[in-house]
Amino acid sequence: MVAPPSTAVAIEVLRWIPLIPLAASVINVFLGERLGKKTAGALACAAVGLSFGLALYVFWLLPATGIFRDVVYTWIESGAFQINLAFQVDALTAVMLLVVTGIGFLIHVYSLGYMEHDDGMVRFFAYLNLFIFFMLLLVMGDNLLLLFVGWEGVGLCSYLLIGFWYQDHNNTIAGNKAFIVNRIGDFSFVLGILLLVTELGRQGLLTLDFMVLQSYVDRLSPATITLITLLLFVGAAGKSAQIPLFVWLPDAMAGPTPVSALIHAATMVTAGVYMTSRLHFLFALAPVTLWVIAVIGAATAFFAATVALTQNDIKRVLAYSTVSQLGYMFLAVGVGAFSAAIFHLFTHAFFKACLFLGSGSVIHALSGEQDMRKMGGLKAHLPKTYWTYVVATLAIAGVPFTAGFFSKDLILWQAFSSAHGSQALWTVGWVTAGMTAFYMFRQLFMVFHGQCRADEHVKAHMHESPAVMTWPLIILAVGSIFAGWLGAPEYLWGSRWDEWLAPVFRVAHEVHHDAVATEIYLLLLTLCIVGGGILLAYLFYGRESKAADHLASWAAGGPYRVLLNKYYVDELYDFVIVRPFTGTSNWLAQVFDVKVIDGIVNGVATLARGLSLVWREVQTGNVQHYLVVFLAGTLALLAYYLGQQ
Amino acid sequence: MMSQIAFGSLSFLLLIPLIGALVLLLIPREQKQALFNTSFIFSLVAFLWSVKILNGFDGGTGEMQMVERVPWMPAYGIDYLVGIDGISLFLVLLTTLLTSIAILASWSVKDKIKEYLFFMLVLETGMLGAFVALDLFLFYVFWEVMLIPMYFLIGVWGGARRIYAALKFVLFTMAGSLLMLIAIIYLAMRHAHITQTLTFNLLQLYDLHLPFNEQIWLFVAFALSFAIKVPLFPFHTWLPDAHVEAPTAGSVILAGVLLKMGTYGFLRFAMPLFPDAAVAAAPTIIALAVIGIIYGAAVAMMQGDIKKLVAYSSVSHLGFVMLGLFVFNVQGIQGSIYQMLNHGLSTGALFLLVGMIYDRRHSRRIEDFGGLWKQMPIFSALLLVVTFSSIGLPGLNGFIGEFLILLGAFSVTPVWTAGAATGVILGAIYMLWMYRRVILGPLTNPENQKLADLNSREILLLVPILALIVFMGVYPQPFLSRMQPSVDLTLKRILTMQSAPVAVNHAGIEGKSDGR
Amino acid sequence: MTPEQLLFFILAGLLVISSLLVVFQRNVVYSAIALVAALFLIAIFFFTLHAPMVGVLQILVYAGAIMVLFLFVIMFLNPAALEPRHGFWWGLGSMAALLLALALIPLLTNRQAMTNPAANKESFGSPEQLAKSLFTDFVLPFEIASVLLLVAIIGAVVLAKRER
Amino acid sequence: MDVNLIPLLPAAQVLLTGLIVMLLDLFFKDHEKWLLAWISLLGLVLCSGEAIVLWGSMDGAFGGTVLLDSYGLLCTQIFVGASAVTILSSIQYIKDNRIHEGEFYSLVLFATAGMILMVIANDLIVFFLGLETMSISVYVLTGIWRDSSRASEAAMKYFLMGAFATGFLLYGIALIYGATGSTNLGQISGFLVQPPGEWPLYIFAGGLLLMVGFAFKVGAVPFHFWVPDVYEGAPTPVSGFMSVAVKAAAFAAWMRILMHELSPLDIDWAVPLRILAILTMTLGNLLAISQSSVKRMLAYSSIAHAGYLLIALVSGEEWGGQSLLFYLMAYAPMTAGAFAVVTSLSEKESPREEYGHFAGLGFRRPFLGMAMTLFMLSLAGFPPLAGFTGKFYVFRSAVYAGHTDLAVIGVLNSLLSVIYYLRVMVMMYMEEGGVEGQSFRQSPYLYVAIGLAATATVYLGMFPSAALDWSQVAYLSLF
Amino acid sequence: MVSLDHYLILSAIIFGIGVVGVIVRRNLIVVLMSVELMLNAVNLTFVAFSSFLGSMEGQVVVFFVMAVAAAEAVVGLAIIISVFRHRQSLDPQEMQLLKW
User: Fold this and answer.
1) Which of residues 171-210 of D touch A (CB under 8 A)?
2) How distant, in Å, are the alpha carbons of C112, C121, C127 from that of B350?
3) B422-438 per-position pLDDT tens digit
């Protein structure tokens, strides 16, 4: 095993960051029912809070260029192949740690209120803690296999949490869909890993340790690297809901809203981005792959945004916007701006979590109603929710000096300026930005403005959520403004962010000072379209106007319906993949296996019995027949001899 | 022979269940409780004894350990020769563990319990013997001895079509093994001709190197009998019938241990004895294995009977094992052995669980269930763990084996490996689909409304297995490190005994040199 | 064609005819009589082959004892006088037997023609000589034969005697 | 001339016992007749004792017409054992079916004596007479249950075919005599020392016809037709006796006379023997599958086993001879035992031989069930039972003699045989019910016999070494 | 001069005829007689050989064969009688209780 670079500092504490949530989860599994909801929930939050504290501590200790490692034990060793169960924290991981534990903590707290009335609460927190554990494994693992373990683990948790309300078929189906689509991605991910190991193995080096990989990737041929990275990216696409594997995410909204916030907005779905950035040294060497990623990212961003324009389910809108934002992140990755991607991941975590929790609060208030057409005018009833929601909406729309503004702008700028970037990519991103602004404000108006379209008894129960739910909202709202200030462009006070991540992404991401003018010019363009989007949203949905319906009726049957039905992608997959597959299996099971294979087997047995029945007729019971055969036998023998002589 | 045994721990291990069986005969059939306790105690003692063997085992060497040799038929060079190494060690443990559990799980068997337990114990001896035998004749004897108890377990205590299933099982298995008998004889004869020493001692026969055209026939004879046992596609059709008809404990043993006989046979006998042939046959076998993986999964998905589904999933899983064996490198083979254990545990557990709802509901049809979680949360949770173990979720045992196998295989045949890897998807599909239809969803069927959750005894059955499932996923080193030397040795045998060097690249082996 | 040969062929012809009668005569009694004739003829052959003692025994034992027994049983059971003839079956049987003879004959025809040494020894086949070898070399078979006959008697009694 | 009676001792012992039993039968009252069985058994025990004492001796007598060697003695043991089991298992049976004890036992003993003579004969005449003694006794035994028309029909068929075969056998002897100028085996093999060119042609025909005779006695296809009918019709113990002792005697004599003394002719009958073996195995197993009567199934199975024995015969050499003898030893207890179990099912006047009669036996009569299971498994060739070990040696000798193809056909056949042997177990354990009012009013002796057979089956299976050594010594004593 | 072959062939023919009788006749008694005929054919062979080889053994054998023949005849007839008791018939082809 090649020794990890000496820069790594061993530090025991790391292992506790993931282990504490795990412990809490285990305790809740076995004793949860006895402890009771409250205790169990408190325990879960405490656990996450604790590891958040630890994360902060580590973050505090972590020198700018340093790496912390914590080797627990050798996990797998076979022949020359060795994998340690080891954790590592560098700048990148540190960021992810804070996001996962921090946001995770807030959402845990929020859930205390949200799940209060659900009798599955204990189970819920057990799952949630387990998720945190696996997510931490994913970001802290010091080798690709460990990352994969976390990768699969979070998949499991999302499966469990999507199907949390198992009584309803749709939820469980959504859960299966999520897991299986992810598996398709993982299939390619595994192949990628295998190819990587094997190719390095041919160089006499069997390892998946990031640090070692980083120092040995140059041994691989470009073609191999391209193939590997492509395979890995498919995995990432599965996890991060990119074209063509995004179909599971919208359905995944079947889970409880905190889950949507934590798993399907803030953390898990960004794992793909994290993985690609973690392996930036590989991807950076594969321009083709980068190009593919950029294109797919942009396409996804655009495509998802268009779908989001028309959705009426409050959570689905957010879901598609998540897909779209993830598209942005991959766009960034694709143009080699890994730190920008992580930056957007970071900011997105705040405002998207905030939005989801807000929507959760709305749904909570409307006792489960999710259709925006049945909402409206809620700002009076839910002030806290409303204001946080506004902030988050501004952030995602990219209104200046909100978090989204900085990160999205950075991405767009990179898309335009970086070596791998192009104007086309920028244009797509630009348009998407506008659509984002539109659908988000559309949502804002439909939900909170105008007069309430909800029916009476819902109105009756309408109430602002308890503090335990609103405080996280407020904190996140604050975050969704200031989180972005870390990464301000050069012409403002400059980016601490890039400095922080620079040592990780050794690819010196050049800043062209000459281009500031262009940058600002582009920025203005972006602001215009964002403004346009907001304005359009206001015209359609802000004022009491039938414009939206006009538009709908005008485009009805045409693009509108297509968008409403998400481009019929699900139907397409069903027709092209699912049906033929199940059909074939069915034929194999019902016909081939039974009739052909087993048929042959039974045929032999039947043959023996049949022969037996036929041949025993020879034994006629007539002694003189016997004698004739006897004689015939003798004659045959004699004849044989005559033949011999 | 017994009289003059230099009495080693392995012989003792073999004897414990046998003695138990004989003791059972002395107990009147009315005292069911006594019968039950006796047999369980004996199986438990056997298990503890095997644990003791594990402690005594020296993980440093790949050679046979605790070897005992007693001349049996000197005139024919046949000895009572037993020994254990890193390959058979854990299979022995698996056997003893599963047998105790299976016996404990036989609580629901009510009639003819005496014979039932008798056969269980005899079966245990047979299986253990097959794993530790180092004399080809002795191995064959044990190999056949296993058949009869299983035949009775299926035929007497089985389901509706039990007789058909039992006969099919025996005939299928014998069809292969009888040819193997001839091959064994032939092999011994050639050895006698060449070296002038007549012996059936495996360790000596290893050194015999026959010309290819002879090897290939012998290999085919061996391979056929093992492939049927595995079962390798397309020799699998006895499996679903046997599994479906067998009583729970029978299925557990059948899936948990008997199937491993086949793969173990390949690794211990077919491959090292006929290296050239093995390498020549590898492409074919790999192809069949991968076809089996996909085919088994696809067919499993469409089964309406849970037991049948699990049975076909076995076909799929064992396909992985075969794939790992025939890539001839450390990772592949080690992964295969590990996968044998995993499959033994997870499938064993699955059959136990299926048996438990069958006892309650007397149905195994998937459509009869749905929404069981509401009634039986513990059951559902346990089933969930086992399900994901058999899907191969990282962190559980299944993943380690599968990954090592794929790792080993990929360096040899990337394409077929990719095909095998689709099993990762398919496994998830059929298992989760089954789980969803049985456990999740609304609890509609009135008959399920009053199902009782698992009682403490049933939980007790499953706890050890689940503990192992998790442990083996989190910390496989204790197992892998003990296998390693034996695997290296076997591999060395195969690759050095070979006249033509293998055409494939063994990432694992070459990596070794500069690896550490 | 020497006189011996002439004699041989006449006797042989008679023998064949009488044995054919045994087989193809549909009346049991006639076949029995034909058999007696055949046995007599064989006895004569024995005489010509310098085995007078055996010839005598042949007449006494066979033609005497055994055939009488046969006739006795025939009378005892007096089965349906004439038995139907089954053309195909008979043809088949005859064909088979013919084939047998055809197969045997080439195997029987000897390579080196053997002279008849017994011809010049006078005492050959005399009762003394027979008795001598019977009671010296073959005394054991002789005893066994007695047992054999004993067995036969027991058997006959067990099988044929009426119920107790 | 020397009169050395020692070599004759075993045969004479049995013969004498037979005579005594016959005489005592006249004086005993009906309620005393059970004594006869014990007297016969005593005689047999004495005989086997003498055989043990004489073991290893090599002693000719009566002008070389008999030659007692270990080979003969080993076979003697087999015959004696078989007839002992037969007598034990028939005690109750013949009472039920009103068969005359005296005649029955004495005939069994005479037949046994005949067999012994067959194998110790060193002269074709003695062999022939021994054979006839055996055959005629068995003809009678077959028909001895006069109330049964099946039995009488069986007797008729057996007798008719037997006599017919005797004709051929005798013809064979005649031709060999004519070719070699002697009936003494020693002199014959002496004659065969000279090159084949010198041999008169008809010695081949002689050997051939002799072979036909043997093939008939062992029930080899296509000379097997009598076997199923006769076994089915005959009283069950007698069927057992036939399938074990008669077959053993025929094989032993075949081995000794054709394969050893006339071995120079061997080259010429290797091929037909192979064909014979293949036909016998395959047809026997195939037809056994579709039988509805266990007894008849056993008859066919005995044909199949004759086939396996033929393989050993073909293989020849030391391994072949050894394995033949061992197989005979292994075959005897399992077959005798199986027939004994069938006997044990029989009721007064009603033989219960159908598969249906075995339904549920395993759980109603565990001992019988277990024993029958053992016998069936052993016959099917499952280790570690006598049948398997026997087959193993036979196939082994075949492979060593270069007859691997025969071995393969052999194993495929034993696969076929599994079908019908397991069916018995299916009946006994897996089918419910069975015939009501089945009283199993069998004498304990029968159970003793079954127990002995079962023990032997297991013992020979697990610890065959001793028996192997015997058979080796026995075979080598031929040279 | 009559050669050995003459006798051998003659006896072969007689043997054949006996065989025919055994096979074709449907009266057990006649069948039995045909068996006797076969045995006699063999006897003829023996005697022929003995005189042409000049060894007495042949004749001795014949003596024994006669004994055997007698024994067989006796038992055979007894069997025939017992069969007749059951069937009132002597036709071997009618006796097919035992078959397959």
Assistant:
1) 201, 204-205, 208-209
2) 85, 96, 93
3) 988 888 889 999 998 88
Nearest to D215 by CA among D280, D158, D150, D160: D280
What pLDDT is recorded for position B121?
Answer: 94
Q: Taking the mean position of all CA atoms in its chain, how far away is CA A338?
A: 18
| Cβ within 8 Å of residue B492, ≥6 positions away | none
At A117-165, the pLDDT tens digits run 888 888 889 999 999 999 999 999 888 999 999 999 999 999 998 888 8
Which residues are A143's β-sheet partners? A209
Mark yes or no for CB contact E45/D175 under 8 Å. Answer: yes
For chain B, the first-to-last Cα distance in angstroms comes to: 48
Which SS3 state, helix, strand or coil, does residue D402 take?
coil
Count Cα neighbours of D144 within 13 Å in the Cβ-side half-sphere. 31
User: How much is the pLDDT for C79?
Assistant: 65
pLDDT score of B501: 46
**Kind of pairing, strands D59-61 and B78-84?**
unpaired
**Residue B315 to residue B293: CA distance in whole angstroms:** 7
Distance of CA A614 to the CA centre of its chain: 67
* ipTM value: 0.91
Distance CA B325, CA B272 (A): 12
Q: Residue A291, exposed/middle/buried by CB under 10 A (0-12, 13-18, 19+)?
A: middle
Chain E touched by A614 (CB under 8 Å): no
Q: Report the interhelical angle of D70-96 vs D465-476 (nearest 10°).
A: 120
Residue B92: per-residue pLDDT: 94
Chain C closest CA to A588's CA: distance in Å? Answer: 56
Question: Where residue B151 falls among pLDDT bands split at 50, 70, 90?
Answer: very high
Chain A residues whose CB is inside 8 A of the D226 CB are 626
Beta bridge partners of A540: none
Q: What is the secondary structure of B35-69 as a DSSP string?
A: HHHHHHHHHHHHHHHHHHHHHH--TT--S-EEEEE
* Site of tokens 């554990």: A133
Which run of H or of E encompasses A304?
helix A287-310
Name beta bridge partners: A495. A487
Angstrom distances, CA of residue E36 to CA of C19, C96, D204: 11, 19, 25
- Which residue in E13, E48, E59 is closest to C130 by CB distance? E59
Look at residue A392 and give its three-state secondary structure.
helix
d(Cα B101, Cα D203) in Å, to the nearest integer? Answer: 70
What ranges make up the beta strands (E) of B385-515? none
Position B23 pLDDT exceeds 90? yes
- Angle separating helix axes D247-254 and D202-218, nearest 10 degrees: 160
Interface membership of E32 toward C (CB under 8 Å): yes
Q: How many helices (H) and strands (E) does chain B have?
A: 23, 2
Which chains, if any, share at least 3 CB pairs under 8 A with chain E? Answer: A, C, D
Q: How far apart are CA B13 and CA B10, in angstroms?
A: 5
Residue A621 to residue E24, Cβ atoms within 8 A: no
Instruction: Name which of C107, C137, C151 is nearest D136 (Cβ-Cβ).
Output: C151
Residue D222: φ, ψ to 5°? -95, 25
Let me know: does A519 contact A424? Beta carbons within 8 Å.
no
Instruction: Calculate how close chain E gets to C78, using CA atoms only, in Å.
Output: 10
pLDDT given for residue D440 in this prediction: 60
Query: Please, which pLDDT band fits residue B466 given cuts at 50, 70 and 90?
Result: very high
Q: How far apart are CA D117 and CA D68, in angstroms?
A: 10
**Residue to substitute from A71, A74, A76, A248, interface B, most B β-carbons within 10 A:** A76
- In chain E, whose CA is at the least distance from the CA of C97? E16
Cβ pair A475, A106 in contact under 8 A: yes
Q: CA-nearest residue of chain A to E21?
A: A624
CA–centroid distance for D260 within its chain: 20
